[in-house]
Amino acid sequence: MDLSTFQFINYVIIGVVIVTCFYLYNNKKDDPSGLKSLPSIFTILGVFGTFTGISIGLLYFDSDPNEIANSVSFLLAGMQTAFISSIVGMGFAVFVRISNVVRGNKEDNLEDAEKVITYLKRQNTSLNAIKEGIVGEEEGSLSNHLKLLRLDF
Predict the structure, then answer these.
(1) Longest Cα pair distance anywhere in the chain, in angstroms?
(2) Who's near 135: CB < 8 A, 6+ residues apart?
(3) Contact (Cβ atoms closer than 8 angstroms) between residue 54 and residue 78
C-alpha cells in the first residue's frame, strides 16, 4: 500500500468521526437526556479513532532496519489520525457540555423544583400533625396525657 492510499484511509476515519458527531448532535440536541450523554459518546468516538489510527499505523510499520525509514511515514500518518480524532471527539464533548450549561434545561429544573415544593408541603403537613399530637389541645395529645398523669399522682 502506498502512502497516499494510507492517508486517504486515515482521512476517511477522521471524516467518519466528524460526521458521526454532527449526526448525533443534530438528532439529540432537542432531547435533554440524550444531550447529557453525548459528551461521553463523543469522547468514546475520539478514543476509538485514536486506537484505530495507532493500530493502522502499527500494522504497516516494518521494523526491519532497512525499511524503518520508509515505514515511519505510515506510523506518523496513523498517529496523525489518532490525535486528530481525539481532538475532534474531545472538542465536540466540550462544545456540548458548554452548550448544556449555557442553554440549561429550564423545563427539567422547573419540574424538579415543583417536585421538591410538593415534597416539602407534604413534610410540612406531617410536621404540623406531629406538633398537634404533642402540644395540641385535643384530648389525645401528649401534653394532655402528661397533665392527666400528673393529676393521678
Answers:
(1) 109
(2) 141, 142, 143
(3) yes
Q: Find the angle CA(59)-CA(63)-CA(66) to the nearest 5 degrees.
A: 130
Copy the grid coordinates of residue 149: 398523669
By C-alpha distance, which of 9, 10, 34 is closest to 108? 34
Q: How far is CA 14 from CA 26, 31, 70, in A?
A: 18, 26, 23
* 54 and 125 Cβ atoms separated by less than 8 Å: no
Distance CA 67, CA 61 (A): 9
Residue indicated by cell numbers 471527539: 89
Task: Tell me which amino acid residue 90 is.
Answer: M
CB half-sphere exposure, 29, CA atoms < 13 A: 11
**Rounded-to-integer distance, Cα 96 and Cα 105, Å:** 13
- Alpha-carbon gap, residue 12 to 15, rounded angstroms: 5
- pLDDT tens for each residue of 24-70: 888 888 887 788 888 899 999 889 888 888 888 888 887 777 887 77
Q: What is the pTM of this model?
A: 0.61
